[in-house]
Amino acid sequence: MSDPIQADNALSAPYDAAVIGGGVVGCAILRELSRYRLRVVLLERESDLAEGISKGNSGVIHAGFNVAPGSLKARLNVEGLDILYRLAAALGVPHRITGKLVVAVGEGDFPRLEELLDQGRRNGVAGLELVDRAAIERLAPGVRGLRALSSARTGIVSPYELTIALGESAAANGARVVLQAAVTSVEVRPDAFLLSTPRGVFAARWIVNAAGLDADDVAALAGIRVPRVFPSRGEYLITDKGAGSVLDMPVYPVPPRDDSFLGVHITPTLEGHVLLGPGSEAVADKRDTATTRAAVEKLQAEALALVPGLAGIPFIHAYAGLRPKLVDPRGGPGTADFLIEESASRPRWINLLGIESPGLTAAPAIALRVAGMIGAREGLKERPDFNPGRPAPTRFARRDDAERALRAAGDPAWSEMVCRCEHVTRAEVLAAVHNPFGARTLDAIKRRTRCGMGRCQGGFCGPRIVEILKGEGEPVEKISKRGSGSELFLGRLKP
Predict the structure, then answer these.
(1) pTM value?
(2) Helical spans, DSSP H, in 108-198
């Protein structure tokens, strides 16, 4: 990547549009804008894409039956569903249509299932039906329930791999991604906005504020008043891989009518794990991703009530994500619609606020909407050389023995196992280090290779990744888990 524009020449070649925020929504918007003859840049405050809200997403591709009819959220969810499946396939992102069950464990839940079915049909969701206990046993053996709403179009995807793929696709089509570039101040000029960051000053005619939890603070830098964003923490538990044989589709309990909490999600992953969660807890700090014993125990109890077969499966990790809510979760239940609008006081500045679930599913449709808002004013022209695809990364674990042997014979790096749990080779780690955004933290490498996501949680591969990074010229003192402030080493004991 080239050096960032500096303050003294920021206006000499301003960008047509700057996207603030490198989550799945920001990257989807960047990729969509890269389709046109525009100079576009994405500014991300962290050391990698998907480092914020998107990394804590459960990866469910939602069908759209649990959102209010007539809302922008419902419309973009349903529009985004079909686009997302096509997009994931084009970008080589792992995904699968699994179906989903919303399970009633008592007769008192039956009316709510009927409401969800009606709501889904009003939203235009296909593949919905109410099923009895026998059908539940057939669709998801071992799930305990009397009746369920079955959603045939629901699926799962790797949220961080999708985010990274969108960013890489945008970069391959001429867009620019700048990491560690938190926007610290904004100067409003008649013809452009000047965004100050630690990486320099960037000028752009259009601003798309997709900063997630920080979207209200970023808007305030430009003197724009928007609703406050409240962080809500959701904790997760993840099982060992043996759980994949117990459950192969997402299972939810019947949610309350106020949609304040969907109950514990029990969601299989593409690698054979099962996620329990997220919970829902109001927190004051937008960076508070702590986990608690109380939440872990609650998740386990609720999950085992629905899927007793999980009782014998060990858990290997607990973590937390955050949702950007526009309704204060401390003030009682309730949800708000997505807010996507151009500022009345600052023309050409588009704010996106409250993009919580189903934001991942809706992301491609949100991107189309934002591009349409800009296009209505600019008359966008498509680039004839836009490439919608992306070569999928080669994964040793997903290849047969013949291809593994062939690769190892051609390059010794394919024969060296860096991560035993997930079967990741040195060649894959090196590919991540040399990817378009230069993965130089343990978490960035993890999201691209799965190193550290297995049973030992990095106990085996962590030191080996440090050695690889050191061999690639990274000073040991700068090697970190997720960027500045998470360095692994404090100094040297000997030269």
Answers:
(1) 0.95
(2) 110-122, 133-139, 159-172
